[in-house]
C-alpha cells in the first residue's frame, strides 16, 4: 500500500470519527454548547494521536488547503485528502443517521448537526460568513503555529483539540460552528432543504479563513 493511500484512509477514518462524535453529541444534547464543543475537541485529540503520524490528522479540507498553500501538500495530495475527508464525513453522518433511526429518532428533528445562518435574512448570511471566517482563521493559525515547531509535536494534538473546543464554544450559538467544509457538507446532503441551500456559506467561509490564516502565517512567522 502506498504512503499516500495510507494517508487518505487515515483521513477518511479521522473525519468519520469527528463527524460521528461531534455531530452526534450535538444531536443527543440538543446542541448544548459545552458538551458539543468538548466532543469536537476531544475527537480531534483522539484522532491526532491515532493518525497524526500517518497523515498529519487534517480531517478538514480547510486545514488541507492551508497546508497546500504553505507547500506541505502537492496538488494531487490535496485533492486526495479532500476527497477522503468528504467521504469520511458522509460515512460518519450516515452512521449517525442509522443510529438515530434504530433509536426511533427522526433525522428531520435531530438535524444531524447541520449548520445554519444566524437568522433567515441577509444580515444573518453575512454575519455567518464573518463568524466562520474569523473562527477558522484562529483555528488554522493555531494549527500552523503548533505544528511548525518539532519541539511542540508531543502537545500538538492537545493544543489543536482545545482550540477547536473554544472555537465551538463561541460558534455553536451563532452558526453551529463549521470551520470544516466536510463536516458541514455531509449532514447537509442528507438533510436537504435549508441545510443544503445554506451549506455554501459553511464551505466557502472556512476555506477563506484558512487561506487568510495560511498567508498570514507564511509572512508573519517567517524564520
Characterization of the model:
By secondary structure, the protein is mostly helical. The protein has a single domain (3-220), classed as Glycerol uptake facilitator protein (Up-down Bundle). Helices cover 77% and strands 0% of the residues. The protein has 9 helices and no strands. The protein has helices spanning 3-28, 33-55, 61-69, 75-102, 107-110, 122-147, 156-171, 181-191, 193-220. α2 (33-55) runs antiparallel to α7. The chain is globular. It starts with a helix and ends with a helix.
Compact overview of the structure:
The chain is mostly helical and about 220 residues long.
Form type = globular
| Largest beta-sheet details | none
Task: Give the helix/strand class.
Answer: mainly alpha
Total of helices: 9
Gross CATH architecture:
Up-down Bundle
**Oligomer state of the chains in this structure:** single chain
Low-confidence stretches: none
Give the domain tally.
1
CATH topology: Glycerol uptake facilitator protein
* C-alpha-based Rg, rounded: 16 Å
Please tally the β strands and state the result. 0
Percentage of residues assigned to helices:
over 70%
Amino acid at each position: 500500500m502506498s504512503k499516500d493511500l495510507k494517508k487518505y484512509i487515515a483521513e477518511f477514518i479521522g473525519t468519520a470519527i469527528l463527524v460521528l462524535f461531534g455531530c452526534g453529541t450535538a444531536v443527543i444534547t440538543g446542541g448544548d454548547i459545552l458538551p458539543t464543543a468538548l466532543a469536537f475537541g476531544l475527537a480531534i485529540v483522539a484522532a491526532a494521536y491515532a493518525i497524526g503520524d500517518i497523515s498529519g490528522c487534517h480531517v478538514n479540507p480547510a486545514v488541507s488547503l492551508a497546508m497546500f498553500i504553505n507547500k506541505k501538500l502537492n496538488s494531487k495530495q490535496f485533492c486526495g485528502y479532500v476527497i477522503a475527508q468528504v467521504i469520511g464525513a458522509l460515512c460518519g453522518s450516515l452512521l449517525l443517521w442509522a443510529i438515530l433511526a434504530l433509536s426511533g429518532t427522526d433525522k428531520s428533528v435531530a438535524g444531524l448537526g447541520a449548520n445554519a445562518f444566524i437568522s433567515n435574512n441577509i444580515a444573518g448570511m453575512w454575519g455567518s460568513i464573518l463568524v466562520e471566517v474569523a473562527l477558522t482563521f484562529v483555528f488554522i493559525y493555531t494549527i500552523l503555529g503548533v505544528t511548525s515547531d518539532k519541539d511542540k509535536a508531543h502537545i500538538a494534538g492537545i493544543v489543536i483539540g482545545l482550540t477547536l473546543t473554544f472555537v465551538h464554544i463561541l460558534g455553536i450559538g451563532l452558526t453551529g460552528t463549521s470551520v470544516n467544509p466536510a463536516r458541514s457538507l455531509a449532514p447537509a446532503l442528507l438533510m436537504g432543504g435549508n441545510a443544503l441551500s445554506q451549506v455554501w456559506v459553511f464551505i466557502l467561509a472556512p476555506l477563506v479563513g484558512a487561506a487568510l490564516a495560511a498567508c498570514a502565517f507564511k509572512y508573519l512567522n517567517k524564520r
